[in-house]
Design brief:
Elements lengths: L6 E6 L3 H13 L2 E7 L8 E2 L2 E5 L4 H8 L3 E4 L4 H14 L4 E2 L2 E2 L4 E2 L4 E2 L4 E2 L4 E2 L4 E2 L4 E2 L4 E2 L4 E2 L4 E2 L4 E2 L4 E2 L4 E2 L4 E2 L4 E2 L4 E2 L4 E2 L7 E4 L4 E5 L16
Parallel strand pairs: 1-2, 1-5, 2-4, 5-6, 7-10, 8-11, 9-12, 10-13, 11-14, 12-15, 13-16, 14-17, 15-18, 16-19, 17-20, 18-21, 19-22, 20-23, 22-24
Antiparallel strand pairs: 3-4, 24-25
GO molecular function: acyltransferase activity
InterPro entries: AcTrfase_PglD-like, Hexapep, Hexapep_transf_CS, PglD_N, Trans_hexapeptide_repeat, Trimer_LpxA-like_sf
Pfam family, one: Hexapep
Length: 233
């Protein structure tokens, strides 16, 4: 039986999305998680068997203490993920980012998966699709053949994307939304839960409904994860 030394990594983020990434990393068994990095949680805060070791600013020192130079950003919000990547690479330009693909995801022929991307359980990505850097393809979502989702964008749980679809940067396709074939979705846009998209969506647009209709413009960095008591648009 082959043996190999697993490299040490950290998880950047210590909230709910970190839990699903920890689960993927443990199942893959390619890396050893030495702890979490979070600028808002107290040092010692624990998720599963792992503790917050410090903030992003502490990474250069923590690397020496815990012998790591790699990690993965576990932040669900697209813009926050982008900002954390940019801050961390400024603090430590040599830090490397890994991707995480759940072993129960189905990845087709010639699929390209970018740096820092996260592919969750039950996902289907069909042939010649491209997943950009730091994208999230959430539980049971599907990305059709020859489709492309650009960096910092994400598909919510059970979202369905047809073939030859283009999704630009920092866009969120919410849970159970459906996008038919050959549609273009602009950057920094939001496609609401359960929407059916049959026409192109411009940049900075929020679209809901069946079929999808324009609701309002979206600001860059706008939050889109709503709680049940804050769903008005």
């Amino acid at each position: 039986m082959k043996t190999f030394n697993k490299q040490n990594i950290v998880i950047i983020g210590a909230s709910g999305h970190a839990k699903v990434i920890i689960d993927i990393i443990e199942k893959l068994n390619h890396f050893t998680i030495v702890g979490l990095i979070d600028s808002y949680k107290p040092i010692g805060t624990q998720i599963f068997d792992y503790m917050v070791l410090g903030r992003k600013e502490d990474v250069p020192l923590l690397k020496k203490t815990y012998n790591f130079n790699k990690g993965i950003i576990a932040i669900g919000d697209n813009w926050a993920r982008k900002i954390n990547y940019e801050k961390l690479t400024t603090i430590d330009p040599d830090f490397e980012f890994i991707s995480a693909v759940h072993p129960n995801a189905i990845i087709g022929k010639n699929v390209s998966i970018g740096m820092g991307a996260v592919i969750l359980a039950g996902v289907i990505i069909n042939s010649d699709a491209i997943v950009g850097d730091f994208c999230i393809i959430n539980t049971k979502a599907s990305l059709g053949h020859d489709s492309q989702i650009k960096k910092y964008s994400s598909l919510g749980p059970n979202a369905t994307v047809g073939g030859h679809v283009s999704i630009k940067t920092c866009t969120y396709i919410a849970m159970s939304a459906t996008i038919i074939q050959s549609i273009k979705i602009g950057k920094h846009s939001i496609v609401g839960s359960g929407a059916l998209i049959v026409r192109d969506v411009p940049d900075f647009n929020m679209v809901y409904g069946v079929p999808g209709k324009f609701i309002r413009k979206v600001a860059k960095a706008e939050k889109y994860f709503y709680h049940k008591n804050n769903t008005n648009t």
